[in-house]
Design a protein that fits this description.
The structure is a single chain. The chain has 413 residues and is mainly beta. The chain contains 2 helices and 41 strands. The strands form 4 sheets. It has a 14-stranded parallel β-sheet with strand order 1-2-5-8-11-14-17-20-23-26-29-32-35-38, with helices on one face. A 13-stranded parallel β-sheet has the order 4-7-10-13-16-19-22-25-28-31-34-37-40. A 12-stranded parallel β-sheet has the order 3-6-9-12-15-18-21-24-27-30-33-36, with no helix packed on it. Strand 1, helix 2 and strand 2 form a beta-alpha-beta unit.
């Protein structure tokens, strides 16, 4: 018994030595930033020294898992974040930027030097919450790297930059863009006039519940950029007002555009503007469902072969409402057979056609749509073939008063 007790004591001592030799995990900490150099966690009026007078200084000090609190005030800097799992909180973190109405003095305002982004997020799982980012010239207000993912960009006002968010993600972990206000990002430079722009690869992203306004190129543009991919992206419950278009897709794979609302109420700029939702070349698997598209400067939904790459496939246009478009409600010119299923949409008071399929389209399915009071025709198909009414497409149970050729639609009961 005595020998066994001694062996147990020796084993316990050895285990203690092993544990003592393993360094304890460093506890996450909170750092505070104030431009005057004086602040404490949770108290920007404290007279104790802050961790840093600049955001970049605090980012440099921070370790994985830390939180950085940034007090109100102007920060004339470009911030590069290369440490994973950091949470960077502006003075309005947690406050929805879409409806935020506080004095500028209560915002953490990042105004980068010329040609630099406001924030460059270059590591996994970075949270950026509650800032105003303004005046990035020839660059984006915020950049996310295509080599990382798990971003959360939320509750930020992004305005008066060349473009708003330069959005990319590797896609292993979902990235989320939500509750932001993107407005008037039209300063001179490359990619000017976009709220969100992507051309380096974007995968596994949710863009939800943001507002966009007054962009001269478009609210959201995903560009074709091989070998990088744009895939598995959801654009949901956003609002777009007076943007040149809402969503412009090239090289988009498995995209869903769901429950968004758009409105263009500035007629003077319509000559230079485009369709509310445009699906362009080299896209495959795009669902456009339950959107309300009003006063589009061209078509409500357009499906084309042109752009970055050629050819489109598997576009479902379902249960959308398109009203008062300057051209047609749904306008399809893609010559890829069976590219579009258009079902259950409502097209009303559009200036040209409610639904329009061009010469060269074929084998598309157009069914159970309601198209009334449109300028030229409610239902219009310029193709020729052996399907409905001598066209090359399938029209079934659509409601409309005027059609060309006859037989595409039936009058309302």
């Amino acid at each position: 018994m005595k020998h066994r007790l001694i062996r147990l004591l020796v084993a316990s001592a050895a285990a203690a030595l092993v544990l003592a030799s393993v360094p304890a995990a460093q506890a996450a900490t909170t750092l505070v930033v104030d431009g005057d150099g004086l602040a404490a966690v949770g108290d920007c009026n404290a007279v104790t020294p802050a961790d840093s007078a600049t955001i970049q200084g605090a980012v440099t000090l921070a370790a994985l898992g830390d939180t950085i609190e940034v007090c109100p005030g102007p920060y004339a800097e470009s911030v590069t974040v290369s440490t994973p799992n950091l949470t960077i909180l502006g003075a309005q973190s947690g406050v929805d930027a879409r409806t935020r109405a506080v004095p500028s003095s209560q915002e953490s305002r990042v105004n980068p030097p010329a040609t630099l982004a406001g924030f460059r997020l270059e590591a996994n799982r970075i949270v950026l919450d509650g800032f105003t980012v303004r005046n990035a010239t020839d660059n984006a207000g915020i950049y996310t790297s295509p080599l990382s993912d798990g971003y959360q960009v939320q509750n930020n006002i992004v305005t008066e930059n060349t473009f708003g968010l330069y959005l990319h993600s590797a896609g292993d972990q979902k990235s989320i863009v939500r509750f932001n206000r993107f407005a008037d990002n039209n300063e001179l430079g490359a990619a000017a006039g976009n709220g969100i722009y992507s051309d380096q690869g974007a995968k596994g992203i949710l863009v939800r519940a943001n507002t966009f306004s007054d962009h001269t190129n478009g609210a959201i543009l995903f560009a074709y950029s091989p070998p990088a991919e744009n895939a598995d992206v959801i654009i949901q419950a956003n609002r777009s007002t007076n943007d040149a278009n809402f969503v412009n897709l090239f090289g988009a794979f498995n995209f869903s555009i769901l429950g968004n609302k758009t409105l263009d109420n500035v007629n003077a700029d319509d000559v230079a503007q485009g369709s509310a939702i445009r699906v362009g070349g080299q896209s495959d698997g795009v669902l456009i469902e339950d959107n309300v598209l009003r006063n589009a400067a061209f078509a409500g939904v357009a499906v084309r072969d042109d752009g970055f790459g050629t050819g489109v496939a598997n576009v479902d246009i379902i249960a959308n409402s398109v009203v008062n478009a300057e051209s047609s409600g749904i306008d399809v010119s893609s010559a890829v057979p069976a590219v579009v299923q258009a079902r259950g949409n409502t097209l009303r008071d559009n200036d040209v056609d409610g639904i329009s399929f061009a010469v060269g389209t074929s084998d598309n399915s157009i069914r159970r749509n309601t198209s009334v009071d449109n300028g030229d025709f409610d239902c219009h198909d310029k193709s020729t073939g052996t399907h409905t009414a001598g066209t090359a497409n399938f029209w079934r149970r659509n409601v409309g008063v005027t059609d060309s050729p006859d037989g595409l639609c039936r009058p309302p009961a």
